[in-house]
């Protein structure tokens, strides 16, 4: 089956967590909105007045199913592509971790948009500075410390043991993103999370991930995505 | 099986979405942190250095499983208690809706804490006013309009048809919460979402929900939960 991924064509954003899983799995997929007519198709599906359309991109068309919400897409893909265990208990526990990553990603976004998405960064720069300071001081250590603790307790190199899961791929992306957005702060902070940094290196050299990162399918970080670099926020 | 629910004992918060499902189902559960020694037990479980502890309350102990993240708990409970369909496709679609409610709830929280959770409301009141104005103008119509559209397209009175699901219970709670936090604005806005308001009334009179709401198990809204009423934010 060829999957159809629908996501904004010029950013990594939330879609990147899905792209990484599809790429690592070597799955057959098309990144629809980057092809001809794809944006129009995506908009039509979002605006549908029939049934239950997705609320927002990313969403994945898999046969007749249309699956929205990043963590939900990964929950579906995981056991089908060797990126999640198959038992219900283990699948739910992995999903729980992905939902915590989802919460963290929303907080990352709000560092540059603490007042609202309909306003420009420049119009909320004062609040963004304060929120970023709080985020770096309180939230990054809380979230990343949690995953570091889990990696330390794991009996393998990955969060649930010896096999990489979609959560490991997502944690790779979290480290990538934080390094891009807050290079000064991350440089200092990385010594606190050695196991997460090791995990990042291990994911980066997985053959399919490496090939993906070197390809033009990987969109560069930029000032429209979730992770954005503003010097004023990286104090 | 008797479930053990772990959540803060003095607020509705995120735990309330789980309480509503357990109550509607007539499930056998204990709200642990409201009983003797419960807070200490909750803290111990969160601080565990073994395996994969929950990141935050609420979490549910079901036999040997410990399930964290509100939407994940509901995903588990739903089909076991007649509050979700059983097919994988339908379960994922319902879960997708719950994850969109989860996103909305995080935005509700940030109306009074746009800068950070470690600061008092009073120390971020200016930003809270701006964020709340944006939230009421842009986000509430976007999210609630989405659910209104789905209810209009449904061939029954509930989001997925003729049977109530945990998503319907959660939407009841969203209307309750918004009415408490933003009474002035909601009064005007409710005429835009007649089907959601009908749904709210329909859930409120379900026998188990009605009995729950009338009991002292239902904690009153207050200024520590997700939904908080501050006059300055309800312009």
Describe this structure in words.
The structure is a homodimer of 235-residue chains. The first copy, chain A, has 235 residues and is an alpha+beta fold. In chain A, 54% of the residues lie in helices and 6% in strands. Chain A folds into 2 domains: 3-80, Glutaredoxin (3-Layer(aba) Sandwich); 88-207, Glutathione S-transferase Yfyf (Class Pi), Chain A, domain 2 (Up-down Bundle), CATH 1.20.1050. Chain A is built from 9 helices and 4 strands, in the order βαβαββααααααα. In chain A, strands 2-1-3-4 form a 4-stranded mixed sheet, sandwiched between helices. In chain A, helix 1 links the parallel strand 1 (3-6) and strand 2 (29-31). In chain A, helix 3 packs antiparallel against helix 4 (88-112), helix 4 (88-112) runs antiparallel to helix 5 and helix 6 crosses helix 8. The longest helix of chain A has 29 residues, at 125-153. In chain A, 46% of the residues are buried. The mean pLDDT of chain A is 97. Chains A and B meet through strand 4, helix 3, helix 4 and helix 5 of A and strand 4, helix 3, helix 4 and helix 5 of B. Chains A, B: This is Glutathione S-transferase.
**Global mean pLDDT of chain A:** 97
Total number of beta strands of chain A? 4
User: What is the distance, rounded to the nearest whole angstrom, between the alpha carbons of the first and last residues of chain A?
Assistant: 47 Å
Low-confidence stretches of chain A: none
Largest interface: chains, residues each: A-B, 48 and 48 residues
List the helices and strands and how they pair.
The structure is a homodimer of 235-residue chains.
Chain A: E1 3-6, H1 15-25, E2 29-31, H2 38-46, E3 59-62, E4 65-68, H3 70-80, H4 88-112, H5 125-153, H6 166-181, H7 183-189, H8 194-204, H9 207-214
Parallel strand pairs in A: 1-2
Antiparallel strand pairs in A: 1-3, 3-4
